[in-house]
Amino acid sequence: MTTPRAGRARRETVAATQAAQAALAAEHAAVYGYGIVGGRVDDTRAGEAREAHDAHRARRDAMSRAVRSLGAEPEAAAAAYALPFPVTDGEAAVRLAAELERRLTAVYADLVRAATGSLRAEAAAGLREAAVRAVRWSGGSVAFPGLADRV
Description:
Layout: H1 4-40, H2 43-69, H3 90-114, H4 117-138
Helix pairs in contact: 1-2, 1-3, 3-4
């Protein structure tokens, strides 16, 4: 017999696992996307693209560990990802970087809501970092990163 408390804990674990898998998938896409960005941005932003690529690889690995710690198998990266628009020059690459970061703020906001403890802290850090990079790439900000698209 499952107690109400055990049932609630199970639902919370399932929600956290789903949100962590979504964050992992978004990080896989960001790593792929920054491969495109890095090949198209001009020399003045190439270092920024490399730093973001490295940061997303580290976050991807952290999300993979988080999914495992929740008792699930981390989803693998896809061989390729559809880009939201053609990226044929540096200007489009900068827009792609901003879009990748904006999307990450949304999945990390979901993970903050679903997680507890150290995973929630990790998600909040991911949200903050993505929001800062989104501002750097786009030149603008929103009041509530990760929630702006849901209003």
